[in-house]
Specification:
The structure holds two protein chains of two kinds. Chain A is of the alpha+beta class. Chain A is 27% helix and 28% strand. In chain B, the strands form two sheets. In chain B, strands 1-4-5-9-8-7-6 form a seven-stranded mixed sheet, with helices on both faces. Chain B has a two-stranded antiparallel sheet with strand order 2-3. Chain B folds into two domains: 90 residues; 228 residues, Bira Bifunctional Protein, Domain 2 (BirA Bifunctional Protein, domain 2), CATH 3.30.930.10. Classes of the chains: A alpha+beta, B alpha+beta. The structure holds zinc ion. Zinc ion (ZN) binds next to loops of chain B.
Chain lengths: 797, 345
């Protein structure tokens, strides 16, 4: 970016976001360059006992200064870069300092320190003043997957020109290309895979570092400067979105460049020095001896440009997106070139790339000469198909009244051709760089006009839709009922993953081969799709029994069953579990049965043969309207070793079928009113509220990560003292470690005096950042007791 | 002479009634004075000796005394009964703050709560609630949604592939196609459900999460309608007007496609760490249904138009309850899950 536009980089970034593609931030580069200046080294003296030397420099702008410098190339006579004290470099302020006993006022800098290039070997030896501060607008490249034209600065400049209604300058002049036959032949085996291949041969090449301005520009967009030839190919790619490659012509065998599929097992070493073995899917560029580049992905090492190169073949080609994408993903190699090719580049851009590169090469490699004309093989490039755009349709689509002239203006600015074939009817031809896949139908044009007008300029309008009640969804009503009944009966909802592992399945006597297998699981213990909710429920029971003595939980989810062909069947099930650490398990089974009764009016149970994961004599079928719809059982002690867990497992599909056969519609409901009201009130209570603050307000309590401890306290209180009152007092006394206070029981009678009762509480404490020591727990207890006694309570200890 | 006796008797009896301390005391007074063998009965017996004139006069006096004593007794009895009731009621004082015996209600999963809230909102606006399978065909998940083979959009979604060539759906969008076939135009539908992406799990990434897909198809559906609808929807969700911004976004199944941003709920657009200082939160991808998708749903795009959108239910639940670790949602820890959807706690 340059300062030529009359908007700030921040404003421009925002405009690009709302009209073109998401920008991720604006970064100022080279701000420090404003303070940096050139300096001539006047005198260099060694410092005794140090590898550093004392240099006196004439800076012009800051006068004569003395600095300490360790660079090997620091010598009298060179012009380098001087950074004064006070300048901020990468967040670090340069300060006057005494180094090796000599006061250093500022510093001499390398190209890397200045952010101009990656050269840190010594201080800069050049004129730095051609590099100016600038701004970089970062674009989220995920928002550009459909816009091959925006993978180069010129494409983005076109958008900016259209947004700001300013003229666009094209950096490319095709007339510089030489006429006549090329000096090397090009042969394309399959024009579907490579629609066009253009090349130019140049001689009298001097390979050297690029001038600083070029290095600076590449560095600031994240490309590594390498040498003047390679840098020009990268610059053209960044500028006009055309990936290019330079071969050392002397290393190419034969007189023809072949574009063909690789032979199976063919090998090539890439510029990244990796060895690649190719298959027939890959497209290669080959000379008489074999592959010299993996098309659109990476060039070969042996044919690349080196310090001694004198003659080059410059490649500017177009490849099929799908083919490049496949090859790049198979080789696990994504390069700047492959990322662009897989977006479907414009084949017309290949010659533009050569023309632009030629002009730049003449600047950076003086004396370079073209040999012959452009070598090229191409299939006939079809002209983009025109699209008929009726303005009344466009207005209806956008829902706003846009003038024909405005539409024409927007499309022109984006370089679409617009012809009015009839009143209010445009014939619109997209430019070639938008026609590769982005723009093909009138709806695509609606987007172009809409985004450039600005969606914020479209007045929202209420849709006209018939007022009809939505189709009823009995399943939804049924599931809501099931959830209400479950919570009313004290069960809390859990969600478990759809994945299980063979061991989990095995514990429940489910054969691994009956499960649908995930081909690319996140980890080996998530390789199967669940055929039962029970593995998840068993895990929930084990996990929660570490913290809780009693609990109830449920899940509604799909069993996924493999079919011989087609999609697996998905069957909705309910699993509900009651766990109790103490007791003989009878109460839990009763509760599970009661839940079934609450869900299914008239349901009953019948003793049935236990499955391997069930208590041998405590397994029961759940009968609903004489059909088996599920089971209630106690889990076998080998699954749940501490405590007892009763499980209700219902096939909700079966329940629904049975209900529908009987013609009663919703299956659940009758006889299940208990507890439902409370839970509905709770759910809607949470959603009430008129401000967003209330909407986001319910922050959950973070879970303790360290063990909690409990102790019991019995408080002797007067007849009319309430549990809540005592609990509040205890809460306010307990302090920060309090996790909860649970009322246990009350007791009246001997040896308590008449009019007295004893209230027992269990106090649980823990800390969020450590395990509490016995002393800390005791001190909480003492504080509560002390406070209560002070308030006139007596404690039964 | 009888007059004086009678008066003295009445006075003393009234005093005793007044002074009685219990129903038993009262009963003793009643038996002694008004009983069949009581004092008044005795006086009455002696009246036979009197002259007829005198007899009538004394009889009247006797009756008056009897009535007045009976009334006094009745009043006093009522007083005793009231006091007894008061004392019984007083003895029945109850501490209702003692937790009610029996089971405490359970709670619903936070995603269930948010999903229900949003489903209810859509149902009130005439939308059908549909569901689709979690295991989908490659065709339904990608091809029918205008995402062809080798389309870079398939890069954006890391898919769990299953044996048999099927996959775990990467979005709820396949239900669009199922819904179009099932309902036919015009239609309004939503499809909430579980979706999967092959992603490592960390505090902000999950391979299993919940989305809600929405679609409206009618004869006249424009960008202006879409903007209006989204604003109304967001007002319904957040219970207040929310500033929105529509910008171009690319999704193969819509054209034009948008990213809808809302003013950050925490800083209201001023900029804060949650919105990375931009003041905006990306909330809702949406757009006009691509004609190819309509065609794939058996609907003629020359006659019908539509809009579609996707809401992240997991994301909304996390915003709603300020949940900062996505893993808690599938973790099954009752200490976490029991905190939601209750009136208190
Ligand atoms: Zn914010």
């Amino acid at each position: 970016m340059t300062g030529a536009l009359d908007v700030t980089p921040q404003e421009l970034g925002l405009l690009i976001t709302v009209k073109t593609a998401e920008q991720e931030g604006v970064e100022t580069v080279g701000a420090h360059l404003a303070m940096v200046c050139a300096a001539r080294v006047v005198q260099v003296d060694p410092i005794a006992g140090s590898h550093n030397r004392k240099a006196v420099v004439e800076t012009g702008r800051y006068g004569r200064r003395t600095v300490v410098c360790g660079a090997p190339n620091c010598r009298a006579g060179i012009v380098t870069a001087y950074i004064p004290a006070g300048c901020v470099l990468d967040g670090r302020t340069i300060e006057k300092a005494v180094i090796a006993g000599v006061e250093s006022d500022g510093m001499l800098a390398s190209g890397a320190e200045l952010g101009l290039n990656r050269d840190a070997a010594g201080i800069l030896e050049l004129d730095v003043e051609e590099c100016k501060p600038d701004s970089i607008i970062e674009i989220d490249n995920k928002s550009l997957t459909h816009r091959p034209d925006l993978w180069g600065h010129h494409g983005m400049a076109r958008e900016v020109a259209a947004i700001l209604e300013r003229p666009l300058r094209d950096p490319v002049d095709l007339s510089v290309l030489p006429q006549g036959p090329g000096s090397i032949a090009v042969s394309i085996a399959d024009f579907d895979l490579c629609p066009r291949y253009s090349a130019l041969t140049l001689e009298n090449v001097t390979v050297a570092p690029s001038p600083l301005w070029l290095q600076y520009r590449l560095t600031s967009v994240g490309l590594n400067p390498i040498n003047n030839i390679v840098d020009v190919t990268n610059y053209v790619m960044a500028e006009i979105g055309q990936p290019m490659h330079a071969f050392d012509a002397a290393t190419l065998a034969g007189e023809t460049i072949h574009v063909r599929r690789a032979a199976a097992g063919e090998k090539m070493q890439g510029l990244d020095e990796q060895h690649y073995t190719l298959d027939e899917q890959a497209l290669v560029i080959a000379d008489a001896n074999g592959p010299v580049a993996i098309a659109g992905v990476i060039g070969g090492l042996s044919t690349g440009v080196t310090q001694t190169t004198q003659r080059i073949v410059l490649e500017s080609a177009n490849f099929q997106a799908a083919s490049i994408r496949k090859t790049s993903s198979r080789l696990k190699l994504r390069t700047d070139a492959s990322m662009r090719f897989e977006k479907s580049l414009d084949p017309r851009n290949t010659r533009r790339g050569l023309a632009r590169a030629l002009v730049l090469l003449e600047q950076v490699s003086p004396g370079i000469r073209v040999v012959g004309g452009v070598s090229e093989a191409t299939r006939e490039l079809s002209a983009p198909a025109p699209i008929e755009l009726r303005l009344d349709w466009l207005r209806r689509k956008l829902g706003c009244d846009v003038a024909g002239e405005k539409v024409r203006g927007i499309l022109h600015a984006l370089e679409f051709q617009v012809e009015e074939t009839a009143p209010e009817v445009f014939r619109v031809t997209p430019p070639s760089w938008r026609a590769t896949k982005d723009i093909s139908i009138k709806d695509d044009l609606a987007e172009e006009v809409g985004r450039m007008m600005g969606y914020s300029s479209i007045e929202p309008r209420a849709p006209l839709a018939p007022v009809v009640p939505p189709p009823v969804n009995p399943e939804r009503a049924f599931l809501q009922k099931v959830r209400e009944v479950c919570t009313g009966q004290g069960f809390t909802e859990v969600y478990n993953y759809s994945f299980v592992n063979p061991q989990q399945a095995g514990e429940l006597a489910l054969a691994a081969e009956d499960h649908v297998r995930v081909l690319n699981p996140i980890s080996s213990d998530q390789g199967l799709l669940r055929t039962s909710l029970l593995p998840g429920i068993v895990k929930n029971i084990r996990d929660n029994s570490r913290h809780l003595e009693n609990f109830r939980l449920f899940e509604i989810g799909f069993e996924i069953h493999k079919q011989a062909e087609g999609l697996p069947t998905e069957a909705l099930h309910l699993a509900a579990a009651v766990y109790s650490k103490a007791g003989d398990g009878v109460a839990g089974l009763m509760e599970a049965k009661r839940l079934a009764e609450c869900l299914l009016y008239g349901a009953g149970v019948r003793q049935t043969e236990a499955r391997p994961y069930e208590h041998t004599v405590r397994a029961y079928a759940v009968l609903y309207r004489d059909e088996v719809v599920g089971r209630v059982s106690e889990l076998h002690p080998k699954l749940v070793s501490a405590g007892r867990a009763a499980v209700l497992y219902l096939d909700l599909e079966r329940v629904r079928e049975v209900s529908i056969v009987e013609g009663t519609g919703s299956a659940a409901g009758r006889g299940s009113a208990g507890g439902v009201g409370a839970s509905i009130a709770a759910a809607t209570g949470a959603s009430a509220g008129t401000s967003t603050a209330a909407w986001v307000g319910e922050k959950y309590k973070p879970l303790p990560r360290y063990p909690s401890s409990s102790f019991d306290l019995s408080v002797i209180a007067g007849e009319r003292v309430t549990v809540a009152e005592v609990e509040q007092r205890m809460t306010s006394l307990a302090g920060e470690f309090l996790q909860g206070i649970e009322f246990v029981r009350q007791y009246v009678g001997a040896p308590l005096a008449e009019g007295q009762k004893s209230l027992s509480f269990r106090v649980t404490v823990c800390s969020m950042d450590r395990t509490l020591s016995a002393e800390e727990i005791a001190s909480v207890r003492a504080r509560i007791i002390g406070g209560l006694e002070q308030a006139g309570f007596e404690l039964r200890i | 002479m009888t007059d004086q006796v009678l008066e003295a008797l009445q006075t003393s009896a009234l005093a005793r009634i007044q002074a009685s301390a219990s129903l038993a005391d009262l009963e003793a007074v009643r038996v002694e004075v008004l009983g069949r063998k009581g004092t008044l009965a005795g006086i009455s017996k002696e009246m036979g000796k009197l002259a007829p004139e005198e007899k009538a006069r004394i009889g009247k006096l006797l009756n008056t005394a009897k009535q007045s004593l009976e009334q006094a007794l009745e009043r006093r009895t009522a007083q005793f009964e009231d006091a007894a009731l008061d004392s019984r009621l007083a003895s029945e004082w109850l501490d209702l703050t003692v937790p009610a015996p029996g089971i405490r209600p359970g709670s619903l999963h936070p995603v269930t709560l948010v999903q229900k809230e949003i489903e209810d909102l859509f149902v009130s606006m005439g939308f059908a609630v549909l569901s689709g399978p979690e295991v989908e065909t490659e065709y339904n998940n990608f091809d029918a949604l205008n995402i062809p083979q080798d389309h870079p959009a398939r890069d954006m979604q890391d898919t769990f592939w299953l044996e048999g060539g099927n996959l775990l759906r990467t979005h709820t969008s396949p239900v669009q196609v199922r819904g179009m076939h099932r309902l036919g135009p015009p239609l309004r539908m939503i499809a909430p459900g579980r979706v999967f992406r092959n992603e490592e799990v960390d505090p902000s990434h999950e391979h299993t999460f919940y989305q809600l897909e929405g679609m409206m198809v009618d004869r006249e559906v424009s960008v202006a309608h879409l903007i209006y609808f989204m604003k109304t929807l967001l007002k319904g969700i957040f219970k207040r007007d929310v500033a929105v911004r529509l910008r171009p976004g690319y999704f193969p199944f819509v054209e034009p496609g948008f990213e809808l941003d809302i003013h950050c709920l925490l800083c209201d657009g001023a900029g804060c760490p949650v919105c990375k200082q931009s003041g905006w939160l990306e909330l809702l991808p949406c757009g006009l249904v691509h004609p190819s998708v309509l065609r794939m749903g058996g609907i003629d795009p020359e006659e019908w138009n539509g809009f579609a959108f996707g809401l992240g239910l997991t994301r909304l639940a996390m915003m709603r309850y300020a949940i900062d670790d996505i893993r808690l949602l599938q973790g099954g820890d009752l200490r976490f899950l029991s905190q939601f959807g209750k009136a208190s706690n």
